[in-house]
Amino acid sequence: MSSAFGQSLLAAVSLVALTTPAFAQDNPQENNSKAGGVEEIIVTAQKREQNLQDVPVAVTAFSSATISRLGLSSTEDLAGFTPNLNYQPAGGIGSSIGIRGIQDQNFTFNQVGSVAMVVDEVALNSPNLNTFALFDISRIEVLRGPQVALFGRSTTGGALNVTTRQARVGEEANGEGSISYGRFNAIDLQGAAGAPIGDMFAVRIASQLQKRDGIQRNVTLGVRGGERDRYALRGSLAFSPSGNFNITYSGLYGKDTGQQLPYLPIGFLQPGGGATACANPSRQPGNGCADPYGFVSPGKFEENYSNFQSFAHSKVFGNTLNIALDVGPVTLSSISAVYDHSISRQEDVDSGPNGRVEVHNDVDTNQKSQEFRIATNGKDQPFNFVGGLFLFDEQNSGNVARSILTAGIGTPPVGLNSLIFSQKTKITSAYGQFDINLSDQLSLVAGIRYSDESKRGSARSFRRTGGGVGAWTNFAPTIGAHLEAASLVALSNPAQNSGDVPFGKSWSNWGGKVGLNFKPSEDALIYASVSKGFKGGTFNLIPAYNLQVAQPIANLQKGVDPEKITSYEVGTKLELFDRTLQLNIAGFLSDYQNQQVFTFIGGAAALLNAGKASINGVEAELTWAPEGGWLIQGGVGLLDAKYDSFFLAEEAGGPDFSGKRTPHTPKATFTGLVQKTFDIGDNQLSAQVSFKQTSSQFAGFHNTVDEFLPSRTTFDARLRYLFGMDQNFELALFGKNIFDKRFCQTIQPGSFTNQCIVNEPGTYGVKLGIKF
Questions:
Q1: Distance between CA 187 and CA 368 in Å, rounded?
Q2: C-alpha distance from residue 633 to each of 60, 574, 657, 691 (Å)
Q3: Mind giving me the DSSP string for 563-579?
Q4: Dihedral of alpha carbons 650, 651, 653, 659, sign
């Protein structure tokens, strides 16, 4: 922990009331644009309904109305309105979510995130499901800091808690629909409807279709890349024979058959051949440096240069059954879920026209979870308790990151490496949390989770190297032809293939939280807490294994230890000036151990533990809704994140990374929004502009020029007109990234080229919606 920063932070916190504000309120002007005032926000961050300002947790919330007002289309968009929330694409297999500088640094299929994605009380394990389409959503809560007791499994970074709209007995028939059209022929079609069936049943169905042309021009192939083609359908059925007994079934089907956005290659060799490092020290796109095949990328963000189209096709099918019985003082709940997910993916790793470095993946994931819970009923009780048992079972199997290498177009392959694996994860955990009033103003909260986790499986490598041109006669010659498991086995050399290599470990972990909350008035809350969180261990199934050799076998079987974090937090939540101003600030000091980091060692990918780090920071968010139809919101996140001790014994020379900044931890993020609403008769017109600024950061822990990401600022704008009876029609004009600011969201240094994962270009369009 940085002592100087920690002392100044604690001093500041002692002087300033610290909190966490929210966006979850519906637009306070939608019913009366001149009235002013921030409306009450109800969240379930502690597994019971509470006013956000009474919850001693750093949480930002988005209601259904706010999601519509801001024009959010996926969970990635939340980062534009939440300080210290960061989304990074993970090489075509979903996204990595980071909160307060704690973010996953790998792109494999058998991992679990440091930030939990929780949908309708079910924790989704696969990183492929982190990017969640926002259609027919009731509420989203972004919880910052370790979440230990209440969200299915412990996390070190936080949680995204998504609640979809579901069938509700007693609710009248209702529905909504919208269509939007924008740049690149982007179409977003959404619809939802719910209705009662007699007195005891209700049903709801929602769907979304998204299509878009490619946003990059492939110079090599003469086509466009980055097409989008997604479809999702969600339905729920509710049964409530009495007011104290409810059963809700919900099902989800989703399919994505679009293209993975190609990497923008960044060379690091001197043009003209050879292995001489480039004289230009810059490692940003367009630096004039070459890849190992001699290609010099122009570095234009609107272009790509791959010699085949990359894609990441996926399907998901989920089922959830929620049963709740109110027996008076407590409610007994059972939450059962089964999710099946599959992904088929291929990418051009070198991203250029001359080389042939291909990756092909096909992975299936099945997760089953069961949670039994007991919770006290009622609001503002002198004693509240929630506790339960969580059971989890996941099966991963498939072909992970096979690479095919050539010396260039027209030359035979020189290497085929593939790994076929199966892994099973089991988790059994018990948890409990209570809060009790010590006086009218002071309360105590305490929680704990104990978890037993095991991961076991086997892997087998299939390889072919050397042997000259004749040995590759049967090799699939077509660039971009997807290779499935059977093809890999057929193309491999039996003499170079391994047998099944087993791996497995078990871990026992515990975490908890203790906090004091002081409420000096109805409009103020001051809280302090200590939380200990953890994320389970795992195994390195990243490619380039040769499981005939002792060292790769030892690396696989060694595994990676669990992450652990202890976080100290103080905060306050204030409502001022007749509740027209809401100010929330939070400060935290975190001791972070065994971060699971990704790197390359000797050209081979590796997943390792990174010693100890200190991550300290401050967050402040403000919502001001004065009279006259104004809404002003702003946020700031400050981070000081460095390794206290990190020696990489596996790398030549055993370098010391102590004092280096942890990956993807910008020192400052700023967000802001200004909205003005005008009454036009019975209708409303609102105009808003928002921005997010992120300071420079590093994509890896080496902190080299190859990993440097410059600061970036993006602006969005929206003009919205509500009209018709009860303002049930919406017409909106929107622009995202309106100044078309292009940058690398992250950079992945590699042996063949540095890969820039580009951000989305500026887009604009029109939306028409209706509610009934």
A1: 34
A2: 12, 15, 38, 11
A3: EEEEEEEEEEEEEETTT
A4: negative
pLDDT of 15: 31
The pTM score is: 0.89
Expressed in angstroms, the distance from the first to the final Cα of the chain is 54
3-state secondary structure of 81: helix
Q: Per the structure block, which two tokens stand in for 645?
A: 């001790």
Residue 100 phi, psi dihedral angles, 5° rounding? 55, 40
What does DSSP assign to residue 78? G
Say if residues 194 and 250 touch (Cβ distance below 8 Å).
no
Whether residue 762 contacts residue 737, with contact meaning beta carbons closer than 8 Å, is answered with yes
Q: Looking at 183-274, which runs of residues are DSSP E strands?
A: 186-197, 201-212, 216-218, 223-225, 228-242, 245-256, 264-266
In tens, the pLDDT along 378-437 reads 766 899 999 999 999 999 998 876 667 665 555 666 677 888 999 999 999 999 999 999
Which distant-in-sequence residues (6+ apart) come within 8 Å of 144 by Cβ?
20, 58, 59, 60, 84, 85, 99, 100, 158, 586, 619
At residue 465 the predicted structure's pLDDT band, cuts being 50, 70 and 90, is confident
- Measured between alpha carbons, how far is 619 from 635 in angstroms, rounded to an integer? 7
SS3 106: coil
pLDDT in tens, 514-559: 999 999 999 999 999 999 999 989 888 765 568 888 878 888 888 8
Sign of the CA dihedral running 377, 382, 383, 384:
positive
